[in-house]
Amino acid sequence: MQDLRLTWLPFLLAAGLAAQTAQTIRLPNATLPSGESAIPLASSPSRYQQWYSANDLRLAARVPMRIRSLAFLAGNVLQNGSTLDIEIRMAHVLPSQFPSTTFDNNLAIDNTLVIPRGVVTLAMRPAAGTRVFTFNFVREFAWNGSSGIVIDMKVFGNGNGNNSYLYPCQTTTFSPGQTVRLFASGPPTSLARATTVQDGIGLLTEFDYVEGVTVSFGTGCPGSGGLVPVASTSGGLPIPPNGAWTQTLSNVAPLASTVLVVGTSQTAFGSIFLPYDLGQLGFNGCWLRVEPVVFFPTTSSAGSFASVPMPVPGITLRRRSLFTQWFVLDTGAPNGVLAASQGLWHAFG
To answer: What one-character-per-residue DSSP string does 91-134 give?
Structure first.
């Protein structure tokens, strides 16, 4: 059988190679520390959210990533650290969305519990600029490469009698459009709305991450029975070497002709901007979301499933990306011809 790597790999390698290393980004991006704040780590019980802009993330990371931990940096600490009873969640926010004063509204997209409630111990008199604690996630948060993010911190207690004390972390005090912080004091589970919203102010945050992730973008168009085909992968992550990596399709008509389209762009195909409305070609409701460079035709199974193996070779592909989308010939589709999946962005580790 033909090694499918020989089909898709050459045009990916044309962009060049880079060695893989552990990564840390600091947000807000390109901002010097200009203040410090004891909120929320050394304040009374509270709920705290901090928003980071999509532009800052794209400048810092450029491709989707799996965030594994976060940390804040010590200010000019005058007191020793204490314990902290805390829970942390993360979520995506739309690139154009400014945070809502209603906390839960900011957790509507990919809400992920990254730190279950528990007690941690902050560093004793840490040197300014060093980490006061690194919150290692129990579940990675996969940033989608295009949206902003928000962290949601519920502080149930601080080991100092729940009284505020002098244990500041470094902040930015003028980064409008880059970060926003929102908070309210009181038992965090009963706090629905922020009483304080400050644009351009927030804790300097270090996110530790690794690459090698697949994320969805856009939407598909329905086929028979109104079902929209769903693209996914199996066999692990796009990290070399991975001979089991496979593109998969579900929610597809049985025994239908399908094709997997592969490209290196989700924004342009020659002079054509993506996504491209295929309604102009008679396929109403469907959009081309990836650059069509390589095609893998196949047929769905009787169980309404299709797959194409794409083994990843054992060479460095860090910061290289592939974009894929499935199309299905389906006379039962609302347009009478075609159904399509959403797009997938594969960022190699």
So the answer is: EEE-TTPPPPSBGGGGG-EEEEEEEEEEEEE--SSPPTTSEEEE
pLDDT 10s digits, 139-179: 999 999 999 999 999 999 999 999 999 999 999 988 888 99
What is the spatial distance between Cα 86 and Cα 89, in angstroms, rounded to a whole number?
10
d(C-alpha 67, C-alpha 205), whole Å: 12
Question: Do 273 and 267 contact (CB within 8 A), yes or no?
Answer: yes
Hey, how many other C-beta atoms are within 10 angstroms of the C-beta on 209?
Answer: 22
Q: What is the DSSP letter of 193?
A: B
Long-range CB contacts (within 8 A, 24+) of 192-198: 192/102, 192/103, 192/104, 193/101, 193/102, 193/103, 194/47, 194/49, 194/101, 194/102, 194/103, 197/99, 197/101
**What is the per-residue pLDDT for 15?**
45
* Burial label, 226 (beta-carbon count in 10 A; 0-12, 13-18, 19+): exposed
Q: What is the pTM of this model?
A: 0.89
- The closest of 98, 95, 89 to 141, measured between CA atoms, is 89
Take residue 15 and report the two structure tokens written for it.
């962009």
pLDDT in tens, 51-110: 999 999 999 988 999 999 999 999 988 889 999 999 999 999 988 788 999 999 999 999
Name the β-bridge partners of 102. 193
